Amino acid sequence: MARLKFGAFLAPHHPIGEHPTLQLRSDIALAVRLEELGYDEFWCGEHHSTGWEVIASPELFLAAVGERTHRIRLGTGVISLPYHHPFNVAQRLVQLDHMTRGRVIFGSGPGALPSDAYVLGIDPMVQRDRQDEAIGVIKRLFAGERVTHESDWFTLREARLQLLPVQEEMPFAVASQVSPSGMTLAGKYGAGVLSIGSMSTQGLLALPTQWSFAEEAAAKAGRSVDRANWRVVMTWHIAETREQARAEAKEGLLRWHNEYNVGTLMRPGAVAYGSADEAVDQIAFSDGAASVIGTPDDLAAAIRHLREISGGFGTVIGFAHDWANREATLRSWDLVARHVIPEVNGLLEPYRESQRHVIANREVFERAGAAVMQKIMANERAAAALQETMAARTATTGGHMPDLQAEKAKAS
Question: Which string of DSSP letters, residue by residue, matches 5-46?
């Protein structure tokens, strides 16, 4: 099976209370650290209300990240297309692609927060159709076409980009949550998918059905969709032990759920938890839990399970949050990079096989020790020195060295 890529999705979700400037700098530092750890992608969202999600322009934020990184791919996760004139979106993405030397992934959505659409005077019933319309126009602009388009919400007259992207084919993805519209758009345009709905138990169970929407729409449009371009968002907090992970994450998790999901967004069906331990038990340890609060082994097992029930995908995207303090959060990302990624991708198995091979063939490799002993005993001075070596406490030597205690026993 192909190796999985790994990335991070910064909505962002930050509890109210920290200096906004320092918070933004901390988010940039997270992206830089993730590149150092070898993560493949970093995604940043667009929101305009709620107080918890303060990045209004993913393009601006990713431009700052791009100046401090060199390899990691940068995704707009997502630009809410109904909020913008498509020509301006296309121009900003092209500029960002040049500024980052071709590392941009164009992620789009209809707009996730009803409060954002409300302040802009946009009817939620038209948002998904507007996203569809905008994608079609932006794709044509990226291809260098001159576009004339008349809509009830924007107009283009012989519009053409004077600068095209660095990437001959800029990769793009469509956000998918609960409704089939995201997957259907992905199929229609042959795009990738950013499955944000997988953060819930219901979303996990719906993944196979969701992907079928993309395949059906692709077949209808004469296109194809590739699971390698399917990104699935997961939530986790990882520590050396489950007890440590729970202790680090539980208070922040409780606040995130009660204050934001329930108190602010008032998500349908979401109820406040009475304690931090109840929040952890329900969100991470109940049957079919969508989040992982535990060890690297726990997360590796969850990823394997998700890969199995979904039928396969290309990238695991970790949801960035403030459940734990900053130090513990960074350590969590570090543990995933050092232990989960190589485990899931089979990078450690050759080590283990080599170890098993040496153990299983110990008798064969003991001949190397016999060869060393033969040379020692053939030299009188070396043989005399051997007695002193056997009496002394020496540092651990290589596997080719003879067993000196065994040789001493033979000699006596």
Answer: EEEEEE-----TTS-HHHHHHHHHHHHHHHHHTT--EEEE--
Structural tokens at position 175: 């956000």
Residue from 336, 347, 294 nearest 40 by CA: 336
Domain residue ranges of the chain, discontinuous segments joined by +: 5-349, 361-411
**Is-contact 300 340, C-beta < 8 A?**
yes
Architecture of the domain defined by 5-349: Alpha-Beta Barrel (3.20)
Half-sphere exposure of 286 (CA within 13 A, CB side): 12
Confidence of residue 99 (pLDDT cuts 50, 70, 90): very high
Please give the angle made by the CA atoms of 169, 174 and 175, to the nearest 5 degrees. 150
- Mean pLDDT across 79-100: 98
- Of 65-69, 157-161, 208-212, 234-238, the range with the lowest mean pLDDT is 208-212
